[in-house]
Write a structure and sequence with these properties.
Layout: H1 5-22, H2 30-35, H3 41-46, H4 54-59, H5 65-69, H6 78-83, H7 89-94, H8 100-106, E1 118-120, H9 121-131, E2 136-137, E3 144-145, E4 150-154, H10 161-170
Antiparallel strand pairs: 1-4, 2-4, 3-4
Amino acid sequence: MKFTYKYLEDEWVKGYWNFIQNNQDKGWDWNDISRNPNITWEIIQNNPGKNWNWGELSYHPNITWDIIQNNLDKEWDWVGISCNPNITWENIQNNPDLTYAKLDKQFPKSCQGNLGVFATIEDANEIFVRTNRHRYFDKPEECITLSDSSIAVCSQWGGNINQFLKQAESLGYDIKIKSN
């Protein structure tokens, strides 16, 4: 009997999930299970009472844009979604529902220091008027448009960049130093 790759993969996924189901007394780490590529959307849908970590599932290679759009009531991690291999730039551009509040939750002011990682264009302009110094990348082509505002990223980092990099890494970003 010859088995196809798809058949073997499906059997592996069923076996993996059955093992978890048959050993529920083991104190499973649902963060890790949510991250495991053997978990399918079908398993998640059929087990809504499990303690799924929606932040981890946001990065998951089995999660698609359609799944996200059809389940907006879930606590998706929008930074994780932006790292998901199934989510394209076109998906993001066509669905600009990322808000200032969501972004601020992912990158709080403490990641930068006094000024914060970003500010609304209005706040960035007010800081410029008050200090006569550009503290943000505030040229129109440098600004980021969100669903509820336009923002400028801080240009004042100094030693604080390490806090930002640590936060970005904790959210799943892989940042590399690029030399010219």
